[in-house]
Amino acid sequence: MMIDRKQWRRVEAVVRTVILKWDPYGLIGDGAPADEWDDEILKVARRVNGIKTPSEASAAISEVFSRAFQPEGFQPEDCTQVGQQLFDELKNNGLI
After folding, report:
1. What whole-number distance in Å separates Cα of residue 46 and Cα of residue 6?
2. DSSP letter string over the chain?
């Protein structure tokens, strides 16, 4: 499914909200710049079209963060809660 610019901004905003709230290393909470997770946020947002279930959302987050950092702590089962949150927010906003 192709999305327009307005819809892309909505997808990005939802992913950003969920990832910043999750803040896996507590960087934002410790005062890091708000753009600390921008690369990962954009990579997850690009995968939204492939997300149809909470487990697919968890897998997308797991893949992006495992590649950016290390697999330890970012396995799909480690990302279950944030994946569920992402899925719920995307669904509630009519983006999936």
Report:
1. 14
2. ----HHHHHHHHHHHHHHHHHH-TTSTTTTT--TTTTHHHHHHHHTTGGG--SHHHHHHHHHHHHHHHS-STT-SGGGGHHHHHHHHHHHHHTT--
The reply to whether the predicted model has a pTM over 0.85 is yes
Rounded CA separation 76/70 (Å)? 13
Question: Domain containing 59: what range?
Answer: 5-25+32-92
Interval 65-93: pLDDT, tens? 999 999 899 999 999 999 999 999 999 99
Determine the Cα–Cα distance for residues 51 and 47; give it in Å rounded to an integer: 7
CATH of the domain at 83: 1.10.340.20
8: left (phi > 0), else alpha (psi -120 to 50), else beta? alpha
